Every structure is written in C-alpha cells, then in structure tokens.
Amino acid sequence: DAGVTQSPTHLIKTRGQHVTLRCSPISGHKSVSWYQQVLGQGPQFIFQYYEKEERGRGNFPDRFSARQFPNYSSELNVNALLLGDSALYLCASSFGQGFHEQYFGPGTRLTVT
Amino acid sequence: QQQVKQSPQSLIVQKGGISIINCAYENTAFDYFPWYQQFPGKGPALLIAIRPDVSEKKEGRFTISFNKSAKQFSLHIMDSQPGDSATYFCAASIGRLTGGGNKLTFGTGTQLKVEL
Predict the structure, then answer these.
(1) What percent of chain A has pLDDT over 70?
(2) Which of A53, A69, A92, B113 has the fewest Cβ atoms within 10 Å of its own Cβ atom?
(3) CB–CB of B104 and A97 under 8 A?
C-alpha cells in the first residue's frame, strides 16, 4: 500500500512569493495534519484537517493556510514568503480525528532565497 | 513554551549496546506518547507508542518506559546496530476523548550514532 505522498520534493522560491504544497494521505485515512520542521529541530504543528474542516491550528501567522479536498488530499499555502519559512514541510495522515497514530510523508523541502 | 523536553541532544553507542533517550513533559493532559525515527532527507517514521495506563511497552528491540508520576518517558534500544543511526524524536498528544485532535508536540530530537 502506498504511504503518504507529498509533492513537490524540493522547491526554491524567492522572498515575497507564494507556494502551494500538496499531500495525499494513506488510503482510508481521513485526517491530514501539516508540520514545519526547521533544520535541527522537531516538527512544529501547523494545521489539522478532518472531513474538509480545520480541526486544529498551531501558532503560525495568517500567511499560512490549508484546505482538504473531498478525496481527503490536502494542500498547504504560504503567502508572502520569508527567509524563515525555509524548512521541511511534513504532511501526516491518520485514520480520523482523535486517532493518535500519525504517519508522515517524506516532506517537501522549501528553500526561500 | 516547550512542553516536551528531550535529552541527550546526541548519543554515541557501540554496536550491541543499549541506547537510552529520555523525555519529560509538562502538560498532564497528554495521554499518547509516540517515538519517531528520522533518517536524513526523510519524514519521521512511527516506531513505538505508549499510553499512560501502562508502564512499559516492548516491540522487538525497542522499549518505552513510562513514569506517570514523574511525567517522564524513555526509549531503550537494545542491541543497537549501525542501521539504528538516525535522529529520534519523542512526542506527545492529547486524547481523543477530549476532542483534542491529533496535534503532536515534539521534543527537540536526539542524534544517535551506533559505532562498529
């Protein structure tokens, strides 16, 4: 069975630009969460979506937004990119809201220059 | 506010030895404690997890010990192998019954190197 898939693998953007990252959860999983991992640190929670609704939000500015589609895939959008947004963006899927086991994708490495 | 503290930051163990990584948490509402293994350039992989109603859980060479009163939990890797060399993260989340969702709060990570 396919695990969590994310695209693109790598991305280079310029300050002020906008970026969209995509995630497909494990088949049968209905919840998707997004995390930001800065080099040398643990992942930080950004959003959780379940049944197309936002169910949790971390301490990130409004430049960050996300949505979930009817097929449970998700996309993360970041506007007005800053150098500090350079990080590995991870998507995690779980069966449903409140089910703890989360399985991470390989991530998208975003570099902002 | 860092809610999960992890130590040590790095660890070198000889092949066949025991690797021990410790975590402490502050929020007593946490009731799910997973450990993740991450190789360079990859996403974290779920290794093993425990709930606070048990004091120990073992899966193969990996064991979690949990001390609810001390608000601490640890990962033991028995018979450590060079292939175990990776970064390990502890994490915690709040239970489904409270509707707390899936937010995982991670520790800062431990870089483990297993030498021959």
Answers:
(1) 96
(2) A53
(3) no
